[in-house]
Every structure is written in structure tokens, then in C-alpha cells.
Amino acid sequence: MTDEIVVIEGDGIGREVVPAAVEVLSAFEFDFEFVTAEAGDATRDATGDALPDATYERVADADATLFGAAGETAADVILPLRKAVDSFVNVRPATAYPGVDALRPETDVVFLRENTEGVYSGHEDRLSDDLSTLTRVVTSSASRELAEYACEFVEDGRGPAGDPDEGFTVAHKANVMRETDGRFREEVLAVADERGVDADEELMDAFATKLPLDPTQYGVVVCPNLAGDVLSDLAAGLVGGLGLLPSANVGHDNALFEPVHGTAPDIAGEGVANPTAAILSAAMLLEYLGHAGAADRVREAVETVLAEGPRTGDLGGEATTEEVTAAVVDRL
Amino acid sequence: MTDEIVVIEGDGIGREVVPAAVEVLSAFEFDFEFVTAEAGDATRDATGDALPDATYERVADADATLFGAAGETAADVILPLRKAVDSFVNVRPATAYPGVDALRPETDVVFLRENTEGVYSGHEDRLSDDLSTLTRVVTSSASRELAEYACEFVEDGRGPAGDPDEGFTVAHKANVMRETDGRFREEVLAVADERGVDADEELMDAFATKLPLDPTQYGVVVCPNLAGDVLSDLAAGLVGGLGLLPSANVGHDNALFEPVHGTAPDIAGEGVANPTAAILSAAMLLEYLGHAGAADRVREAVETVLAEGPRTGDLGGEATTEEVTAAVVDRL
Ligand SMILES: CC(C)[C@H](C(=O)O)[C@@H](O)C(=O)O
Ligand SMILES: CC(C)[C@H](C(=O)O)[C@@H](O)C(=O)O
Questions:
Q1: Cys-Cys link to A319, which of A81, A257, A310, B86 (CB 3.0-4.6 A)?
Q2: A37 with A84: CB under 8 angstroms?
Q3: Rounded distance, CA A101 to CA B82, Å?
Q4: Residue span of the signal peptide, if any (chains A, B) (predicted)?
Q5: Does the C-beta of B79 come closer than 6 Å to ligand 2?
């Protein structure tokens, strides 16, 4: 059966790294149909709408989507697209690779970020000239669904240690947000307990202190939405930046894959962007579509190229996006 | 005129480091009257109340308070005490010291954290068996008051660079929390503009990536309440942990000073806790009460002792709290 994959390059280096990732996907003999769609700043400038309905519908109806990056319209594009694929978890691995300058080369953590609620609920009110409010939402159902996913993830040996006994850590701020994060924490720990998965907890501020001091303390980390956003970006700083990090927005029968980096306007259009994050996002897409072996081959090829070169400028090399991509395809 | 200083040791190593800080304060000939008060886990166990009304009133009526740490009742104690001193800003310097093992020894940042609202509003509701909400509050008045403080702080050369031209950075998440952090960001930047203080901005997730990559990019950082909590704790991880970091909760005519660290139950009661954070909090208290010269002398003495020893176990030494304190007093 053909899998329909929507491809959205977006803005800036999205236009360079997404084709690179598609080239890697096309190197396999899978029955993929690639369908392009438009979103981002350029789309807004051309059509008045950063995320046209046609793009939203196409993503909602696809089997999976590969997205690049959007500029100032990033939130207008990515937040609705996460809804389009009905995503309840954002999977964000942060791994340091040999050959890449990292502040903490021993970092190997996967964040499982709640992807629908928290302060991302979208409910804000301007109550007076002085006062605005936001309604932060936490439900037991979303918390439990995330926790079920985390348990399966751990049970399947998909954590960095590959060892189900390692369990996961839930990071939260339930000492202050007692009712909302209290609910989140309680439900996540209850699901882990029901399923016999080992789980411990950490306040999110303590986590922010302790991760740089010793990242090997953590493996799989389960967080509310904003905590996952900030703590996974912190981990990116420890592995050398956003340039290498992929992510998956996983839903019930659809998913969207995106590099964590942005549009990098300073180098966009020059053909020198690092395609690694987009290619690793494509590997997550392969795994999601049931091609775990192919996903592993992509990851191994990427690791070899990171270690041996060629390298793009962000990693101290002089190679083009195309040269790095060709080297990865070569090693598949 | 006598200044009344309330002294709350609290729990764990609070009982060791607060007396050390009082010893340093007492080494000067200022007209301080120290009044002790109780709060924390032990107080709750003894009286049923982690923060007795008498303590709250005493703090509210004092000129300044020095607080140690509380255990599991931390939030029950510190959040009301911040209200007792009517604190609108939490000042959190994160400085790496020579002689202290730090992941980023070049870190020198001061966080000015909004101290009354955001997700700390305290408004939470259990709306159903499935759903809880929290009302995140942002007002123009609190945002502007914080910004005015930040401008004065910068103008007075109190930033790490000591150079008013360095201005400040406002960290926020206004791309998602458009109305609430949008208001915060807009008001803070407007006040800076009105006062001719240079201000730039950073999304809080990008800040979490960029601070570990290069902390010298930042000096004074102005944040909403939770962002300030998490990002300042991240900075703590870059300077070697919470053991050295002081903080000030500044109000209109009252203030409370506390080390950022907790009760350290693993070493409590052994007389080997590092008193540095508490002593540096006492230095902030001296500065607040108008004794800037004395504050500088304390800071210099602390720096000398950190560089030359004696050192407590957390810094690889074998000295007791008392020996380190005596060494600091000796060098005043
Ligand atoms: C662009 C923004 C809305 C988004 C988020 O906050 O989720 C981004 O920071 C991310 O983490 O993918
Ligand atoms: C104990 C807790 C309520 C407190 C906070 O979140 O403000 C602490 O983390 C701090 O930063 O002083």
C-alpha cells in the first residue's frame, strides 16, 4: 500500500534540508508518494495565509508529513499542524554525536512532551487595560495517554539506554501548580505504576540545574508541553545546538516530523545548511511507518558522516548540503 | 536607626548556613537587631503550620529578612513570605567563581524575575474529574514595575558588565502566550524605550539553548516568574550548582534574602554545609539596607576564600561551615 507523505519545505533553510531528507527517503524502495504543500512566511506573503486550508487538509489526510521550518509565522504554522495530525506527543531525542563539539558529549536523552495542552491551550483573554489571563489546561486523559505512550516507548527499548528497567523521569512543577501539574504528575506516575514501569520525578527547575551538571542521570523524560519545549531546548545546548536534532509529533494514525532548528536566515539560500536534523527526522518517519531497519540504516549513515565528514560549516567543515546528503545516501 | 532583621533558619542546612551569615553581618558595627522566627517542616510538625501567622507578621513588619531553606513545605513557606515583603522582583545573580569547578566559568548573569504573577497566581480549579485549569495572570502594572527596576539596576551599573550601555534582555514565550507574555514583553520593552535603556529579547526556549552554548551573550535578564525560576536554575548548573547562589526578593520597603539551595538533607546536621550562598545573600541584604561598601567587602572576602580555601566538601575541600565562615570574617 502506498504511503502518502506530505512535504512542506517552508522558509529559509527548510527549502534546502527538506529536499535532502526526501532524497534519503527516496533512496529506499518503499512505496511512498510525496505530495508537496505550502506554509510559512513566503506563503503568507503570497496568499495572505501562512497555513492555507488546502495544506491543513492535505496534512490531516496524509499518512505522514515532513516539515522544514517557518520564519516569523512558525507558531501560526506548527501549532495548527500539530492539531492536523492529532498529535498527543512530541518526541525529541537529544543525542551528542562523536565528531560534534558538545558541551556534554555524554548527553543522550529523549523528551516525550505533551503536545496538546498546558499553556498551549490557546485560551487567553484581555480582561482590562491592565490585565490579561491565560487558561492553562491539564486533563487526566491527555496525561494518561502520554504516559501510556511513554510506557510503551520504554518497554520497547526505545529509550537511550535501550533498557526497559531504566524507566522514565517525569519533570513538572507540581509544588507550585498543585492542581494542574499535580494532576499531570499523579496520572503519569499512576499509569507507570499500573504498567510496572519504573518512574521517578524531578521538579523542572531542579532538572534545569541538574541536566548540565550530569546528563547521564536522565534517559526518557516525560513533561508537560512548555516544560518539554524549554528542557529539550536546554538539552540541545548541551549537545552542540539545534542543528542536529530531529523531532516527531505523533498522533493516533498520523504524524508530523520536523527538525528542531529554525530557518537560519543568515545562511539560507546558500546551499550550505546542515541537513542532519531533517534527515534524522526522516529516519523517525521511516520508523513510524514501520521501517525500523531502514531508520537504523539512516541513523548509522548519519553517524558515520558526522564522525568522518564531509561536514557543513556549522560543524567546522566546508561541505554543501548536497555533498553531505550524497555522503549519507552513499553509506546507506 | 536600628534595622530589624528577621532571621528564619528553617530546615536542614538552613540551621547551619543562616547562623554563618548572621556571624558575617555581626562582624560589622551596624545597628541591626536580629529577631528569630520559625518556619518550615519542623515548624509544621511541631505546630501544624509550616508558616505561623506570627512569623508572617514579623517578616511583614521587619526591615529585612534572612531565610535559610525549607524542606517539603518550601512552597508553603516561601511563596507567602514573598507576599509578606510585598516583593515584585526576585534578583538572582549567577556568577562563576575562580576556584570553583564550573561547566561554563565565564558565566556572569543576573536574572530579574517577576515575583508576583504568571503561573504563580495561585488560581487553580478542578473543573471535572478529567480537567483542571490554572489562570496565568499578567498585568501591565507588574510588568512595568519590574521593567522600571531593571532599568534602574542597569543605569546604576549593577549588571555584571557594570556598564549601563549593556542594557538587558527580556526572555519570554510571547509567540505562544501572545496575549499574556505579549503584554509582558511589550510593556517591558516600552519602559526600556521610554528610559533610553537598551533592551533586546529572546524566546525562553531559545535562551535555554543559547545560554549553555555561550553565556557571555547575556548580562541582565528580565523574565516572567516561571521563566525566571527555570532559566536561573539552568544558569546555576553552568556555574557549578546551587551551592553558591544567593537571591533577593525585593519589595517596596521590605525585602527577603535567601540562598537558592535547598535543605540538603544528605549532609544536614553535620556542620559541613557550604555557607557561601547564605553569606552572599547577607551581602545582598547589606546592599539593600544601604551598606554597599560592606556588601562589596563581603563579596571580596568570599571570592578570596573560594579561590584560596578553606573549602567545604561540595567544593572538594574538608573544611567545616564554621571554618569557612571564620575565614570569610577574617578577610573582611
Ligand atoms: C514555534 C513554537 C510555537 C514551537 C513551540 O513552542 O512548540 C517551537 O519552539 C518548538 O519547540 O517546536
Ligand atoms: C520552592 C519553590 C516554590 C520556589 C519557586 O518556584 O519559586 C523555588 O524553586 C525558588 O526558585 O525559589
A1: A310
A2: no
A3: 42
A4: none
A5: yes
Ligand 1 atom with the smallest distance to the CA of A247 is: 12
* Residue range A248-274: mean pLDDT, rounded: 96
- Find residue B169's DSSP bridge partners: B200, B221
Residue nearest to atom 2 of ligand 2 (CA): B75
Q: Which amino acid is at A252?
A: H
CA distances from B158 to B143, B164, B168, B217, B222 (A): 20, 8, 11, 17, 14
Chain A contact set for B80 (CB, 8 A): none
pLDDT of residue B34: 98
- Indicate the pLDDT class of residue B328, thresholds 50, 70 and 90: very high
Neighboring chain B residues of A260 at a CB cutoff of 8 Å: none
A140: closest CA of chain B, how far (Å): 5
The residue whose CA has the least distance to atom 12 of ligand 2 is B260
A229 lines ligand 1 (CB under 6 A): yes
Amino acid (one-letter) located at B291:
H
Question: pTM for this one?
Answer: 0.97
Q: What is the pLDDT of residues A63-91, one digit of tens each?
A: 999 999 999 999 999 999 999 999 999 99
DSSP annotation string for B210-252:
HHHH-GGG-SEEEE-HHHHHHHHHHHHHHHT-GGG-EEEEE-S
Count A/B contacts: CB-CB distance under 8 Å: 154
pLDDT value of position B180: 98
Q: Whose CA is nearest to atom 7 of ligand 2?
A: B229
**Residue A99's pLDDT band (cuts 50, 70, 90):** confident
A79 lines ligand 1 (CB under 6 A): yes
Q: Tens of pLDDT along B7-60? A: 999 999 999 999 999 999 999 999 999 999 999 999 999 999 999 999 999 999
Which residues in chain A touch residue B136, judged by CB atoms under 8 angstroms apart? 119, 133-136
Ligand 2 mean position to B257 CA, how many Å?
13
How does pLDDT run across B229-255, given as a tens digit for each residue?
Answer: 999 999 999 998 778 999 999 999 999
Contact with chain A for residue B132, Cβ under 8 A: yes
Strand order in the sheet with B199-203: B32-36, B3-10, B64-69, B255-259, B246-250, B89-95, B108-114, B220-223, B168-172, B199-203
Structure confidence by residue, pLDDT tens digits, A20-40: 999 999 999 999 999 999 999
Burial of B204 (0-12, 13-18, 19+ CB in 10 A): buried
- From CA B191, how far away is CA A256, in angstroms rounded? 41
What is the sign, positive or negative, of the torsion defined by CA atoms of B226, B227, B230, B232?
negative
* Neighbour count for residue A128 (Cβ, 10 Å): 9
- Give the whole-number percent of chain A exceeding pLDDT 70: 100
**Cα angle, residue B32 at apex, residues B26 and B35 outer, rounded to 5°:** 95
Q: Which of A77, A78, A231, A258 to mutate to test the pocket of ligand 1 (most atoms within 8 A of CB)?
A: A78
Q: Once rounded to an integer, what is the mean pLDDT over residues A199-217?
A: 97
Tell me which residue in A124, A236, A237 faces B179 most closely, judged by beta carbons: A124
Dihedral, CA of residue A84, residue A85, residue A89 and residue A93, to nearest 10 = -110
**Catalytic (active-site) positions of B:** 120, 173, 205, 229, 233
The residue assigned the cell 545516501 is: A329
